[in-house]
């Protein structure tokens, strides 16, 4: 996979040289190219922003440098990439979208600063490319570089051969089809006792069925406590009788359609 990032802060993307992404680059599984937007600004101050039409606070990124930069990047490769634009006003970034993006051979990221990029840039490239405006959460950051790091890592770890264990991502929280979209439960490693705290006995039993059931129950407990919205969205056909019994104990009621809702007066654990 090839990834291009156009930014006014190339140094912000240095973490893409370490950890799993860095190793994937070293092995040739990932081709990451970072471009400085100011290289396509032609005045002596390398200006990339200006005041907004209609007034208001902040500055808006100019269309000319973005247009030249993106045209240059597009001309350097074969085919058409997906253009990903991190923005608080975009669609939510989910594991499902990460999987979809991981299947693309080429991604180009356009992280904005200030009040965003002149809207005409999106209109221009929507006629030529698959453009995805994506939000990583309901909050506002100083710029789009941090979301680029988030999205690239989420996507890169799904590429074949990037993770040491090819099965590792299949049971991730939010992985499509994984555990009915439940959060992962707690995990443990050696030593079996630490500061007087022991790991759950079932994990030492060697009984794979009981271990799987315990993990499933813990996932349900954590999801019920931290993300009740995910319980409400659970596909009823993905829940077995043990799931249903535990959800009842946790204060959930099963509706006529098989979906669960909070019992009246239920108290969180």
UniProtKB/TrEMBL annotation:
Its EC number is 2.1.1.228. Signal peptide: none annotated. One of its GO terms (cellular component) is cytosol. Its main location: cytoplasm. CDD domains: TrmD-like (cd18080). Gene3D superfamilies: 3.40.1280.10, tRNA(m1g37)methyltransferase, domain 2. GO terms for biological process: tRNA N1-guanine methylation. Keywords: Cytoplasm, Methyltransferase, S-adenosyl-L-methionine, Transferase, tRNA processing. It holds the Pfam family tRNA_m1G_MT. It is found in: Cytoplasm. Specifically methylates guanosine-37 in various tRNAs. Belongs to the RNA methyltransferase TrmD family. This is tRNA (guanine-N(1)-)-methyltransferase. It comes from Actinacidiphila oryziradicis. The lineage of its organism: Bacteria, Bacillati, Actinomycetota, Actinomycetes, Kitasatosporales.
